[in-house]
């Protein structure tokens, strides 16, 4: 249950005395090597609630001291003091969040339901403290004299903006109502997430024999067998209700009836009309968000969410999406025609349905490009690709990984590496948790357990990458699809963004940047997977050890724009529905009807569905995180496509000068500068949409030159 603003105002430092809370080990500063590490060896769910209660009390006491300080507000006695507050809370919350995402047992879920509203109320008690905000505003108003560095001025802007956007200027009744809404939303978000986890764990498709396995390649069969054995069914095969299990099955299973069953289980998560159905929660979430936005002075939730983004307004974000949508839909129609032709030639006597799309797309790929995904998969071993990530980090950003020693983990699957720069200085730890398991949320992500900073001394960051690859039998290599390999690089890009951070203040550190900018470094890093340097060194056959043949590399290059219609429409439909849901204001929303009617109005091709249907759209309904913000992936990919062309225009993907600018102005800068200014410093100009369209193989719009894409709008309110 992410709390983005809470994380902004609660820095993690290691050298404060723990608050009162008995002998609870979760409250203590982290001990051990690397400046201290999370105490997973002492972690018990029963300790979480008392630890969070004590840590919240400790921070509120610190807030009261700051707000009541008789001295005139200064940067040091107000903003720096806020940066130092909440140290214990941030440590305990990091553990809480790790358990929520990775080890969500029934015992933990009960604690989570209790604590989520408390955490929201705690956040409001800080942002609604009138005396505290008066001091923050005083420093902000006099920032040119009270702040000694540009970074301090940026921190003053960030605190002031966040307080105002949270309702610091409201009158008492409005503040009270905002707090009530936030507490209720916290509970709804927790319920949404727990319902989704239940549907992912509760719907497993069991395969009993060769007839059920028809068409599945050896790697997919092995993963299904391992999943069944892990669930106490040796000798059977299990298709789990998670993307990493479902998508390979849909791509290869010759059993159309089973494809439909697996597809329906997946797209109906949270939508079964039972106790775990999420549609009623969605309606209430949307209603409360709309009410809160109006109280805060914004016409809709979308306007509130985008007020501090690069896009600035929903209209700019929607404009980018609508510029890409027609070309993507047109490409889908071409793809469907190709697939239907294959089905007709084979005498399948069917009309392409959503559960057929991936299956026949693979046939078209093979026919058009002589490329079979099964030819590539034996070369994509998880461990080799992890080494590839390290190699790219070294070449591109001068970061170097070695196994860490003496570091506790929260699950046996987790491994840890220490990370140093080229001068041998420790920059952080990287935790890697790659495998699916019950109680772990689906998808892939990056977390920061501790942000880099140096306000009171150097503090090294701690980051993690988490995924849901299907684990094989002991000692058996895990093979990835090309899409999974891209996901691995994407999430590692987030990790490198955190590990490269080189700022003074924790609140400006690492990936704590605008939502539609944070995906830029991660989407950019995907471009290094297909480079010859990576493939020749790390794409080694699981049996022969030989590198990926050049002939196959060329096939991958020729097919790089294949199925872009599907990928773009699948994503964009979800992003557009998200935006339109949050532009609807306070009118009552029936989630199912709104989704259906909006897609019909958009001209959604009937042969595919949104990447995340509303009842399972965790990006949007498990927190405020990506609400009215799922467009961010397209916005950021506009930046990443343009940025990669900076490399191709120079000496190639490993050009040292371009890489140096990338590290200095993007990866290490955090939120110390406006993201549009940071991009211009790297690229020398604003981005345009042309590179994005070229990357996807779509026709370029007439105004595709520099500046036609997401350049910086006028300053966003509030100021």
Automatic annotation (TrEMBL):
Gene3D superfamilies: Collagenase (Catalytic Domain) (3.40.390.10), Neurolysin, domain 3 (1.10.1370.10). Binds 1 zinc ion. Keywords: Hydrolase, Metal-binding, Metalloprotease, Protease, Zinc. Its cofactor is Zn(2+). The keyword Hydrolase applies. Residues 249-696 form the Peptidase M3A/M3B catalytic domain. Residues 699-719 are annotated as: Disordered. Belongs to the peptidase M3 family. This is Peptidase M3. It comes from Anaeromyxobacter paludicola.
